[in-house]
Amino acid sequence: MAAIMLQGTGSDVGKSVLVAGICRALANRGLRVMPFKPQNMSNNAAVTMDGGEIGRAQALQALAARAALHTDMNPVLLKPQADRTSQLVVHGRVRGTLGSGNFREGRRGLLPEVLESFARLTAQCDIVVVEGAGSPAEINLREGDIANMGFARAAGVPVVLVGDIDRGGVIASVVGTRSVMDPQDAAMIHGFIINKFRGDPALFADGYAAIEERSGWRGFGLVPWLGDVVRLPSEDAVVLEKGRRVGGDRLIVACPILPRIANFDDLDPLKMESGVEVVMIPPGTPIPAEASLIVLPGSKATLADLAAIRAQGWDIDILAHHRRGGAVLGICGGYQMLGRRIADPLGIEGAPGEAAGLGLLDVTTVLGESKMLRQVRGEALGAGFAGYEMHMGRTSGGALPFARFDDGQQDGAVSADGRVMGTYCHGLLGSTALRGALLARLGAASDGGDYAAGVDAALDAVAAALEEHLDMDALIALARRAA
Protein backbone atom coordinates (compact mmCIF):
# COMPACT_ATOMS: atom_id res chain seq x y z
CA MET A 1 0.00 0.00 0.00
CA ALA A 2 1.15 3.52 -0.81
CA ALA A 3 -0.89 6.49 0.34
CA ILE A 4 -0.53 10.06 1.49
CA MET A 5 -3.10 12.37 3.07
CA LEU A 6 -3.43 16.15 2.81
CA GLN A 7 -5.10 17.84 5.76
CA GLY A 8 -5.57 21.58 6.19
CA THR A 9 -5.17 24.23 8.82
CA GLY A 10 -8.79 25.10 8.00
CA SER A 11 -11.46 24.87 5.33
CA ASP A 12 -10.92 26.36 1.85
CA VAL A 13 -7.11 26.27 2.08
CA GLY A 14 -6.92 24.55 -1.30
CA LYS A 15 -6.71 20.86 -0.32
CA SER A 16 -9.11 19.72 -3.05
CA VAL A 17 -7.15 21.41 -5.83
CA LEU A 18 -3.80 20.22 -4.48
CA VAL A 19 -5.03 16.63 -4.32
CA ALA A 20 -6.32 16.94 -7.89
CA GLY A 21 -3.03 18.45 -9.05
CA ILE A 22 -0.95 15.79 -7.31
CA CYS A 23 -3.16 13.06 -8.79
CA ARG A 24 -2.59 14.43 -12.30
CA ALA A 25 1.16 14.90 -11.70
CA LEU A 26 1.51 11.30 -10.53
CA ALA A 27 -0.65 10.01 -13.39
CA ASN A 28 1.56 11.94 -15.82
CA ARG A 29 4.52 10.07 -14.33
CA GLY A 30 2.85 6.81 -15.31
CA LEU A 31 1.57 5.83 -11.87
CA ARG A 32 -1.90 4.36 -11.28
CA VAL A 33 -3.52 6.85 -8.92
CA MET A 34 -6.82 7.00 -7.02
CA PRO A 35 -8.25 9.90 -4.96
CA PHE A 36 -9.98 9.26 -1.65
CA LYS A 37 -11.91 11.35 0.86
CA PRO A 38 -13.23 9.41 3.87
CA GLN A 39 -15.99 11.89 4.67
CA ASN A 40 -17.15 14.88 2.68
CA MET A 41 -19.81 17.47 3.46
CA SER A 42 -21.15 19.08 0.31
CA ASN A 43 -24.31 19.51 -1.72
CA ASN A 44 -22.25 19.39 -4.90
CA ALA A 45 -22.12 15.77 -6.00
CA ALA A 46 -21.53 13.62 -9.07
CA VAL A 47 -22.97 10.30 -10.23
CA THR A 48 -20.52 7.39 -10.43
CA MET A 49 -20.23 4.55 -12.89
CA ASP A 50 -21.53 2.14 -10.23
CA GLY A 51 -24.73 4.17 -9.86
CA GLY A 52 -24.01 6.07 -6.66
CA GLU A 53 -22.93 9.59 -5.76
CA ILE A 54 -19.75 11.14 -4.43
CA GLY A 55 -18.58 14.69 -3.74
CA ARG A 56 -17.91 16.85 -6.79
CA ALA A 57 -14.29 17.42 -5.66
CA GLN A 58 -13.61 13.68 -5.73
CA ALA A 59 -15.10 13.50 -9.23
CA LEU A 60 -12.64 16.18 -10.34
CA GLN A 61 -9.78 14.36 -8.61
CA ALA A 62 -10.75 11.11 -10.35
CA LEU A 63 -10.69 12.95 -13.66
CA ALA A 64 -7.24 14.25 -12.73
CA ALA A 65 -6.11 10.71 -11.93
CA ARG A 66 -7.65 9.48 -15.21
CA ALA A 67 -9.71 6.99 -13.18
CA ALA A 68 -13.40 6.07 -13.49
CA LEU A 69 -15.62 7.53 -10.76
CA HIS A 70 -16.46 5.07 -8.02
CA THR A 71 -18.31 5.37 -4.71
CA ASP A 72 -15.26 4.01 -2.86
CA MET A 73 -13.52 7.32 -3.56
CA ASN A 74 -15.88 9.08 -1.11
CA PRO A 75 -17.60 6.45 1.05
CA VAL A 76 -19.33 8.93 3.37
CA LEU A 77 -21.04 12.03 1.99
CA LEU A 78 -23.04 14.42 4.17
CA LYS A 79 -25.44 16.67 2.27
CA PRO A 80 -26.71 19.53 4.50
CA GLN A 81 -30.45 20.02 4.19
CA ALA A 82 -31.04 22.13 7.32
CA ASP A 83 -28.85 23.98 9.82
CA ARG A 84 -28.52 20.92 12.08
CA THR A 85 -29.26 17.94 9.85
CA SER A 86 -27.62 16.35 6.83
CA GLN A 87 -28.63 13.58 4.51
CA LEU A 88 -26.24 10.67 5.05
CA VAL A 89 -24.94 8.96 1.91
CA VAL A 90 -22.83 5.82 2.42
CA HIS A 91 -21.19 4.05 -0.51
CA GLY A 92 -23.21 6.26 -2.81
CA ARG A 93 -26.64 5.47 -1.35
CA VAL A 94 -28.88 7.40 1.04
CA ARG A 95 -28.84 5.93 4.55
CA GLY A 96 -30.97 8.37 6.53
CA THR A 97 -29.94 11.58 8.26
CA LEU A 98 -27.40 12.75 10.80
CA GLY A 99 -28.15 15.60 13.16
CA SER A 100 -26.51 17.33 16.08
CA GLY A 101 -27.91 14.68 18.41
CA ASN A 102 -26.44 11.62 16.69
CA PHE A 103 -23.53 13.12 14.75
CA ARG A 104 -20.61 11.73 16.74
CA GLU A 105 -22.04 8.26 17.27
CA GLY A 106 -23.22 8.06 13.67
CA ARG A 107 -19.77 8.90 12.33
CA ARG A 108 -17.89 6.53 14.58
CA GLY A 109 -19.87 3.54 13.39
CA LEU A 110 -18.94 4.28 9.77
CA LEU A 111 -15.16 3.92 10.18
CA PRO A 112 -15.08 0.19 9.25
CA GLU A 113 -16.90 0.91 6.00
CA VAL A 114 -14.53 3.79 5.25
CA LEU A 115 -11.53 1.51 5.79
CA GLU A 116 -13.08 -1.15 3.52
CA SER A 117 -13.40 1.38 0.69
CA PHE A 118 -9.83 2.54 1.23
CA ALA A 119 -8.54 -1.04 1.15
CA ARG A 120 -10.34 -1.73 -2.12
CA LEU A 121 -8.78 1.35 -3.71
CA THR A 122 -5.26 0.61 -2.53
CA ALA A 123 -5.53 -2.89 -4.04
CA GLN A 124 -6.21 -1.38 -7.47
CA CYS A 125 -3.48 1.23 -7.84
CA ASP A 126 0.07 2.31 -7.09
CA ILE A 127 -0.83 5.21 -4.79
CA VAL A 128 -3.89 6.74 -3.15
CA VAL A 129 -3.99 10.48 -2.49
CA VAL A 130 -6.31 11.23 0.43
CA GLU A 131 -8.02 14.52 1.24
CA GLY A 132 -9.03 15.42 4.77
CA ALA A 133 -11.99 17.59 5.75
CA GLY A 134 -11.90 20.80 7.73
CA SER A 135 -8.88 20.70 10.04
CA PRO A 136 -7.30 18.42 12.63
CA ALA A 137 -7.02 21.55 14.78
CA GLU A 138 -10.79 21.22 15.42
CA ILE A 139 -10.05 19.09 18.45
CA ASN A 140 -13.63 19.48 19.66
CA LEU A 141 -14.59 17.15 16.79
CA ARG A 142 -11.80 14.61 17.37
CA GLU A 143 -13.96 12.07 19.19
CA GLY A 144 -15.43 9.72 16.61
CA ASP A 145 -13.53 11.42 13.78
CA ILE A 146 -13.29 9.57 10.48
CA ALA A 147 -12.33 12.52 8.27
CA ASN A 148 -8.87 13.48 9.51
CA MET A 149 -6.72 11.93 12.22
CA GLY A 150 -9.27 9.26 13.10
CA PHE A 151 -8.85 7.87 9.61
CA ALA A 152 -5.12 8.57 9.28
CA ARG A 153 -4.27 6.64 12.44
CA ALA A 154 -6.65 3.77 11.72
CA ALA A 155 -5.29 3.36 8.19
CA GLY A 156 -1.66 4.19 8.95
CA VAL A 157 -1.49 6.96 6.34
CA PRO A 158 1.15 9.72 6.69
CA VAL A 159 -0.19 13.28 6.63
CA VAL A 160 0.99 16.55 5.12
CA LEU A 161 -0.59 19.74 6.47
CA VAL A 162 -1.68 22.50 4.05
CA GLY A 163 -1.70 26.16 5.08
CA ASP A 164 -3.19 29.07 3.10
CA ILE A 165 -0.87 32.08 3.13
CA ASP A 166 -3.31 34.21 1.13
CA ARG A 167 -5.67 34.58 4.10
CA GLY A 168 -2.82 35.66 6.41
CA GLY A 169 -1.45 34.21 9.62
CA VAL A 170 -0.13 31.04 8.03
CA ILE A 171 2.82 30.70 10.45
CA ALA A 172 0.45 30.73 13.41
CA SER A 173 -1.99 28.44 11.58
CA VAL A 174 0.56 25.69 11.01
CA VAL A 175 2.43 26.02 14.30
CA GLY A 176 -0.82 26.50 16.22
CA THR A 177 -2.26 23.33 14.73
CA ARG A 178 0.77 21.47 16.01
CA SER A 179 0.39 22.92 19.50
CA VAL A 180 -3.26 21.94 20.05
CA MET A 181 -3.08 18.41 18.68
CA ASP A 182 -2.77 15.19 20.61
CA PRO A 183 0.89 14.07 20.42
CA GLN A 184 -0.01 10.78 18.74
CA ASP A 185 -2.05 12.63 16.13
CA ALA A 186 0.74 15.14 15.58
CA ALA A 187 3.17 12.26 15.03
CA MET A 188 1.18 11.31 11.91
CA ILE A 189 2.07 14.67 10.28
CA HIS A 190 5.38 14.56 8.44
CA GLY A 191 5.48 18.02 6.89
CA PHE A 192 3.58 20.96 5.47
CA ILE A 193 2.78 22.74 2.23
CA ILE A 194 2.22 26.48 2.02
CA ASN A 195 -0.43 27.26 -0.60
CA LYS A 196 -1.63 30.32 -2.57
CA PHE A 197 1.55 32.41 -2.31
CA ARG A 198 1.71 35.68 -4.25
CA GLY A 199 4.95 37.53 -4.95
CA ASP A 200 8.65 36.77 -4.52
CA PRO A 201 9.19 33.44 -2.67
CA ALA A 202 12.42 34.82 -1.20
CA LEU A 203 10.32 37.16 0.95
CA PHE A 204 8.88 34.16 2.82
CA ALA A 205 12.13 32.24 3.29
CA ASP A 206 12.46 33.27 6.94
CA GLY A 207 8.79 32.47 7.62
CA TYR A 208 9.14 29.05 6.01
CA ALA A 209 12.19 28.30 8.13
CA ALA A 210 10.37 29.50 11.26
CA ILE A 211 7.53 27.05 10.62
CA GLU A 212 10.00 24.19 10.23
CA GLU A 213 11.79 25.15 13.42
CA ARG A 214 8.72 25.74 15.59
CA SER A 215 6.63 22.80 14.32
CA GLY A 216 9.40 20.25 13.87
CA TRP A 217 7.94 19.39 10.47
CA ARG A 218 9.74 19.69 7.16
CA GLY A 219 8.38 21.80 4.33
CA PHE A 220 7.43 20.13 1.06
CA GLY A 221 7.10 23.34 -0.90
CA LEU A 222 5.66 26.80 -1.41
CA VAL A 223 2.87 26.74 -4.02
CA PRO A 224 2.20 30.00 -5.87
CA TRP A 225 -1.23 31.40 -6.63
CA LEU A 226 -2.48 29.17 -9.45
CA GLY A 227 -4.44 31.18 -11.99
CA ASP A 228 -5.58 28.04 -13.81
CA VAL A 229 -7.73 27.06 -10.82
CA VAL A 230 -10.48 29.41 -12.06
CA ARG A 231 -11.04 26.96 -14.95
CA LEU A 232 -11.82 24.13 -12.52
CA PRO A 233 -15.24 23.45 -10.98
CA SER A 234 -15.41 24.44 -7.32
CA GLU A 235 -17.08 22.40 -4.62
CA ASP A 236 -17.40 24.88 -1.76
CA ALA A 237 -20.29 27.35 -1.79
CA VAL A 238 -18.03 29.96 -0.16
CA VAL A 239 -16.71 30.81 -3.62
CA LEU A 240 -20.14 32.04 -4.67
CA GLU A 241 -19.72 35.14 -2.54
CA LYS A 242 -16.51 36.01 -4.39
CA GLY A 243 -18.10 36.63 -7.76
CA ARG A 244 -17.81 39.89 -9.64
CA ARG A 245 -20.02 41.80 -11.97
CA VAL A 246 -18.70 43.47 -15.10
CA GLY A 247 -20.35 46.19 -17.11
CA GLY A 248 -20.51 46.39 -20.87
CA ASP A 249 -22.67 44.61 -23.40
CA ARG A 250 -22.19 41.03 -22.19
CA LEU A 251 -25.25 38.83 -21.88
CA ILE A 252 -26.10 38.52 -18.19
CA VAL A 253 -27.07 35.17 -16.69
CA ALA A 254 -28.33 35.61 -13.12
CA CYS A 255 -28.50 32.85 -10.50
CA PRO A 256 -29.80 33.42 -6.95
CA ILE A 257 -27.66 31.93 -4.19
CA LEU A 258 -30.14 29.69 -2.39
CA PRO A 259 -29.48 28.70 1.26
CA ARG A 260 -29.20 25.00 0.26
CA ILE A 261 -27.88 25.49 -3.27
CA ALA A 262 -26.59 22.29 -4.86
CA ASN A 263 -24.46 21.48 -7.90
CA PHE A 264 -23.92 25.15 -8.74
CA ASP A 265 -21.02 24.06 -10.93
CA ASP A 266 -23.71 23.48 -13.58
CA LEU A 267 -23.13 27.13 -14.50
CA ASP A 268 -19.35 26.89 -14.85
CA PRO A 269 -19.37 26.23 -18.62
CA LEU A 270 -21.20 29.53 -19.18
CA LYS A 271 -18.30 31.35 -17.49
CA MET A 272 -16.04 30.26 -20.36
CA GLU A 273 -18.09 32.30 -22.81
CA SER A 274 -16.53 35.71 -23.51
CA GLY A 275 -19.94 37.22 -24.26
CA VAL A 276 -21.57 35.98 -21.05
CA GLU A 277 -21.41 37.31 -17.49
CA VAL A 278 -22.65 34.87 -14.83
CA VAL A 279 -23.88 36.88 -11.85
CA MET A 280 -24.49 35.05 -8.57
CA ILE A 281 -27.12 36.96 -6.60
CA PRO A 282 -26.59 36.96 -2.81
CA PRO A 283 -29.43 37.40 -0.31
CA GLY A 284 -30.61 40.97 0.03
CA THR A 285 -29.87 41.76 -3.61
CA PRO A 286 -32.54 41.93 -6.34
CA ILE A 287 -32.14 39.94 -9.54
CA PRO A 288 -30.94 42.50 -12.12
CA ALA A 289 -33.57 43.61 -14.60
CA GLU A 290 -31.01 43.52 -17.42
CA ALA A 291 -30.52 39.74 -17.08
CA SER A 292 -31.34 37.78 -20.24
CA LEU A 293 -31.51 34.42 -18.46
CA ILE A 294 -32.31 33.49 -14.86
CA VAL A 295 -31.10 30.07 -13.75
CA LEU A 296 -32.71 28.43 -10.74
CA PRO A 297 -30.10 25.88 -9.61
CA GLY A 298 -30.31 22.60 -7.78
CA SER A 299 -31.35 22.54 -4.14
CA LYS A 300 -30.93 20.09 -1.25
CA ALA A 301 -34.10 21.42 0.42
CA THR A 302 -36.47 22.48 -2.34
CA LEU A 303 -39.43 23.65 -0.24
CA ALA A 304 -37.17 25.58 2.14
CA ASP A 305 -35.31 27.23 -0.74
CA LEU A 306 -38.59 28.08 -2.46
CA ALA A 307 -39.66 29.81 0.75
CA ALA A 308 -36.33 31.66 0.76
CA ILE A 309 -36.94 32.84 -2.82
CA ARG A 310 -40.25 34.34 -1.70
CA ALA A 311 -38.74 35.83 1.46
CA GLN A 312 -36.10 37.61 -0.67
CA GLY A 313 -38.69 38.85 -3.16
CA TRP A 314 -36.90 36.94 -5.92
CA ASP A 315 -40.21 35.37 -6.99
CA ILE A 316 -41.44 38.84 -7.94
CA ASP A 317 -38.23 39.48 -9.87
CA ILE A 318 -38.51 36.13 -11.72
CA LEU A 319 -42.14 36.63 -12.72
CA ALA A 320 -41.46 40.22 -13.83
CA HIS A 321 -38.46 39.00 -15.83
CA HIS A 322 -40.66 36.50 -17.63
CA ARG A 323 -43.35 39.10 -18.37
CA ARG A 324 -40.67 41.30 -19.96
CA GLY A 325 -39.76 38.45 -22.33
CA GLY A 326 -36.82 37.00 -20.38
CA ALA A 327 -35.87 33.33 -20.30
CA VAL A 328 -35.75 31.06 -17.23
CA LEU A 329 -33.95 27.73 -16.82
CA GLY A 330 -34.56 25.51 -13.80
CA ILE A 331 -32.23 22.60 -13.08
CA CYS A 332 -33.34 19.78 -10.76
CA GLY A 333 -34.71 21.52 -7.65
CA GLY A 334 -34.97 24.72 -9.66
CA TYR A 335 -37.11 22.83 -12.20
CA GLN A 336 -39.41 21.67 -9.41
CA MET A 337 -39.80 25.26 -8.15
CA LEU A 338 -40.94 26.45 -11.58
CA GLY A 339 -43.95 24.13 -11.45
CA ARG A 340 -47.41 24.59 -9.97
CA ARG A 341 -46.93 22.67 -6.75
CA ILE A 342 -44.31 20.74 -4.72
CA ALA A 343 -45.26 18.22 -2.03
CA ASP A 344 -43.01 16.48 0.51
CA PRO A 345 -45.53 14.26 2.34
CA LEU A 346 -42.88 12.06 3.98
CA GLY A 347 -40.60 14.88 5.14
CA ILE A 348 -37.74 13.75 2.90
CA GLU A 349 -36.00 17.15 2.92
CA GLY A 350 -37.35 18.58 6.18
CA ALA A 351 -40.73 18.82 7.85
CA PRO A 352 -43.58 17.30 5.81
CA GLY A 353 -45.48 19.88 3.79
CA GLU A 354 -46.28 21.31 0.41
CA ALA A 355 -46.32 24.68 -1.29
CA ALA A 356 -47.33 26.37 -4.52
CA GLY A 357 -44.49 26.70 -7.01
CA LEU A 358 -43.78 29.71 -9.19
CA GLY A 359 -46.33 28.50 -11.74
CA LEU A 360 -44.24 29.04 -14.86
CA LEU A 361 -44.40 25.37 -15.89
CA ASP A 362 -47.49 23.15 -15.88
CA VAL A 363 -45.97 20.41 -13.71
CA THR A 364 -46.29 19.15 -10.14
CA THR A 365 -43.68 17.36 -8.02
CA VAL A 366 -43.96 14.86 -5.18
CA LEU A 367 -40.82 14.00 -3.23
CA GLY A 368 -40.36 10.34 -2.37
CA GLU A 369 -37.89 7.99 -0.71
CA SER A 370 -36.26 6.58 -3.86
CA LYS A 371 -33.42 8.55 -5.41
CA MET A 372 -32.73 8.68 -9.13
CA LEU A 373 -29.01 8.40 -9.82
CA ARG A 374 -27.84 7.80 -13.36
CA GLN A 375 -25.68 9.14 -16.17
CA VAL A 376 -27.61 10.10 -19.30
CA ARG A 377 -27.22 11.20 -22.90
CA GLY A 378 -29.83 12.79 -25.08
CA GLU A 379 -30.96 15.77 -27.14
CA ALA A 380 -32.48 19.12 -26.17
CA LEU A 381 -32.91 22.38 -28.07
CA GLY A 382 -31.89 20.47 -31.18
CA ALA A 383 -28.47 19.60 -29.77
CA GLY A 384 -26.90 16.55 -28.17
CA PHE A 385 -25.71 16.52 -24.55
CA ALA A 386 -24.45 14.29 -21.76
CA GLY A 387 -25.12 14.71 -18.05
CA TYR A 388 -26.53 12.99 -14.98
CA GLU A 389 -29.70 12.81 -12.91
CA MET A 390 -29.65 13.07 -9.11
CA HIS A 391 -33.00 13.74 -7.48
CA MET A 392 -35.64 12.31 -5.14
CA GLY A 393 -38.70 13.98 -6.70
CA ARG A 394 -41.04 12.66 -9.35
CA THR A 395 -42.49 15.36 -11.60
CA SER A 396 -45.55 14.93 -13.81
CA GLY A 397 -47.40 17.08 -16.36
CA GLY A 398 -46.08 19.39 -19.03
CA ALA A 399 -47.08 18.82 -22.63
CA LEU A 400 -43.68 19.77 -24.05
CA PRO A 401 -40.62 17.89 -22.76
CA PHE A 402 -37.31 19.71 -22.54
CA ALA A 403 -35.18 16.73 -23.56
CA ARG A 404 -35.30 13.17 -24.84
CA PHE A 405 -32.73 10.71 -23.59
CA ASP A 406 -31.13 8.11 -25.81
CA ASP A 407 -33.08 5.39 -24.01
CA GLY A 408 -36.34 6.98 -25.21
CA GLN A 409 -37.35 8.58 -21.90
CA GLN A 410 -38.40 12.23 -21.79
CA ASP A 411 -37.08 14.80 -19.34
CA GLY A 412 -38.25 18.14 -18.07
CA ALA A 413 -40.72 20.59 -19.51
CA VAL A 414 -40.90 23.74 -21.64
CA SER A 415 -43.55 26.45 -21.39
CA ALA A 416 -45.89 27.14 -24.30
CA ASP A 417 -43.98 30.34 -25.13
CA GLY A 418 -40.66 28.44 -25.11
CA ARG A 419 -39.04 30.85 -22.66
CA VAL A 420 -39.25 28.75 -19.48
CA MET A 421 -37.32 25.47 -19.42
CA GLY A 422 -36.90 22.88 -16.72
CA THR A 423 -34.74 19.76 -16.57
CA TYR A 424 -33.52 17.15 -14.10
CA CYS A 425 -30.25 16.83 -16.01
CA HIS A 426 -27.13 18.22 -14.34
CA GLY A 427 -24.03 18.96 -16.38
CA LEU A 428 -25.76 19.45 -19.71
CA LEU A 429 -24.31 22.96 -20.19
CA GLY A 430 -20.90 21.32 -20.44
CA SER A 431 -21.95 20.04 -23.87
CA THR A 432 -20.69 22.54 -26.44
CA ALA A 433 -23.56 22.06 -28.89
CA LEU A 434 -26.32 22.45 -26.31
CA ARG A 435 -24.68 25.49 -24.70
CA GLY A 436 -24.42 27.07 -28.13
CA ALA A 437 -28.09 26.31 -28.87
CA LEU A 438 -29.19 27.91 -25.59
CA LEU A 439 -27.14 31.05 -26.19
CA ALA A 440 -28.46 31.29 -29.75
CA ARG A 441 -31.97 31.43 -28.31
CA LEU A 442 -30.84 34.37 -26.22
CA GLY A 443 -29.32 36.16 -29.22
CA ALA A 444 -25.70 35.42 -28.36
CA ALA A 445 -22.96 33.36 -30.00
CA SER A 446 -20.90 30.71 -28.23
CA ASP A 447 -17.10 30.83 -28.29
CA GLY A 448 -16.34 28.91 -25.11
CA GLY A 449 -15.25 25.76 -26.89
CA ASP A 450 -14.96 22.33 -25.31
CA TYR A 451 -15.52 22.72 -21.55
CA ALA A 452 -14.17 19.27 -20.65
CA ALA A 453 -11.01 19.89 -22.67
CA GLY A 454 -10.54 23.20 -20.86
CA VAL A 455 -10.81 21.51 -17.46
CA ASP A 456 -8.36 18.82 -18.52
CA ALA A 457 -5.86 21.42 -19.74
CA ALA A 458 -6.21 23.30 -16.45
CA LEU A 459 -5.44 20.11 -14.51
CA ASP A 460 -2.28 19.62 -16.56
CA ALA A 461 -1.26 23.23 -15.87
CA VAL A 462 -1.82 22.81 -12.11
CA ALA A 463 0.13 19.54 -12.15
CA ALA A 464 3.04 21.20 -13.95
CA ALA A 465 3.13 23.96 -11.34
CA LEU A 466 3.14 21.45 -8.50
CA GLU A 467 5.96 19.49 -10.14
CA GLU A 468 7.95 22.73 -10.15
CA HIS A 469 7.17 23.98 -6.66
CA LEU A 470 6.69 20.82 -4.57
CA ASP A 471 9.21 18.12 -3.71
CA MET A 472 7.15 15.49 -5.49
CA ASP A 473 9.79 12.78 -5.14
CA ALA A 474 9.77 13.25 -1.37
CA LEU A 475 5.95 13.10 -1.27
CA ILE A 476 6.00 9.82 -3.20
CA ALA A 477 8.65 8.42 -0.86
CA LEU A 478 6.52 9.43 2.13
CA ALA A 479 3.45 7.75 0.62
CA ARG A 480 5.38 4.53 0.24
CA ARG A 481 6.06 4.55 3.99
CA ALA A 482 2.33 3.99 4.68
CA ALA A 483 1.73 1.09 7.03
UniProtKB/TrEMBL annotation:
Q: Where is the active site?
A: 332, 426
For the CobB/CobQ-like glutamine amidotransferase domain, which residue ranges apply?
A: 253-431
Pathway assignment: Cofactor biosynthesis; adenosylcobalamin biosynthesis
Entry-linked SUPFAM superfamilies: Class I glutamine amidotransferase-like (SSF52317), P-loop containing nucleoside triphosphate hydrolases (SSF52540)
Q: Which domain of life is it from?
A: Bacteria
> What are the record keywords, sorted?
Cobalamin biosynthesis, Glutamine amidotransferase, Plasmid
* Domain CobQ/CobB/MinD/ParA nucleotide binding per the UniProt entry, residue ranges: 4-236
Record-linked Pfam families: CbiA (PF01656), GATase_3 (PF07685)
The record's function comment reads: Catalyzes amidations at positions B, D, E, and G on adenosylcobyrinic A,C-diamide. NH(2) groups are provided by glutamine, and one molecule of ATP is hydrogenolyzed for each amidation.
* Sequence similarity: Belongs to the CobB/CobQ family. CobQ subfamily.
Entry-linked NCBIfam families: cobQ (TIGR00313), PRK00784.1 (NF001989)
Instruction: Kindly provide the name given to this protein in its UniProt entry.
Output: Cobyric acid synthase
Biological source species: Novosphingobium humi
Q: What is this protein's gene name?
A: cobQ
